[in-house]
Model the fold of this input.
Amino acid sequence: MKLSRRTTAVAAVAGVAAIALLATGCSSSGDSGSGSSDEKVELTVTTFGTMGLDDLYKQYEDENPNITIKATNIDTGGNALTDWKTKQAAGSGLPDVQAVEEGWLGQVQAVSDSFTDLTEYGANDIKDRWVDWKLKQGTDKDGRIIGYGTDIGPEGLCYNSKLFEAAGLPGDRESVAKLFGGENATWDDFFKIGEQYKAATGKAFYDQSGFVWNAMVNQLPEGYYSSDGKIDVEDNADLKAQWDKLAGGAAAGLSSGQAQWDWGKGKAFTDGSFATFMCPGWMLGVVKGQVESAGGDATTGWDFADVFPGGPANWGGTFLTVPTTSKHPKEAAALAAYLTDAKSAVAAFQAAGTFPSVIEAQTDPGVTGESDLTKFFNNAPIGEILGSRAKGVVAQYKGPNDSVIQEQVFGPATQSLDKGTSGDDAWDEAITTLNSLDLK
Done:
């Protein structure tokens, strides 16, 4: 089970809205140009999943005729991490611009000197572009800015209004938010409502336990690591308490046990297999893409509510970095700056629902207004909801093996829950795996 934040399943969500936006002339700020050199330069870029950047490459080439961009997109964040680690260890093969996911930050910061200090190429002039905690995440212990933020992942609740109404629950998003408790929404309420839904329909409430667990962990003040950089899992009472709630939900039949990043090639989103889904902004494009890949459309009933069990949570968010192996660091840094300016952030949001970490973009009409995504989600004000859900988010410290623990330790354990293993046995399974890996 890979808990990476992107998937190829959303390739179909390539943003018509973004294309329309780009046609109006989405230009960069003056400090993000490639420079006056007429030298022909090819820049390589590696991203993953659906980041909403593809149409921006062509525009950048049009605005900078001396630049050619060769882009590689890897299907999931987990596979992209493997690709980066392999090339990082070899000391060769890295691109000029490397996308880095939030979950990798511990590993990236451990080798931060292998990334270009972007302050050498104007980062200090644009550092007010991002929300404070995003900039802090992309800055190493020596004060070097090594990553320009693209998106953040505030979470709201995706739900199927038709399935809710068929179960005797409210279907409009305001009433759904109240149903779950609004600002006081708890995981206890979430599982209780799930049991009501199960009793009324005989069907599962959410797609699988893995994504729910991921959300629960990300909400805690400290996750798998304590703030002093030490793994803190085995005797972590907060983690275990959340695990017990998750196990109770699985035992009650609330999990559909779906395969992550597949969902029966999208069919589970259209056939009533589950009624709720954990949705950081970038996941909205995943839902849309999955529904469409299964032949569905907006009439399937998916909606997006301004509520989330347990309160504010952030899942994911990416940075654009420039490895020191780049032969064109100035041009690469300029491209990274261009792809993360306000107008580019708006275009990326319209293409894939990636909520901007750029402050100016968060209130832009292109984010708060209508788009293909808002139309798909029953005209939900997606940008406004995500802005609301972003309030109160605190960046959680991610240790060097955070993603390894999430995927290799708790990935199989959450699958075990969905297959009927008791909560205590599945927890013990996770701890046994953790100890066998001898992580730091």
Summary: The first strand starts at residue 41 and ends at 48. Residues 402-418 form the longest helix (17 residues). Residues 1-36 have pLDDT under 50 and may be disordered.
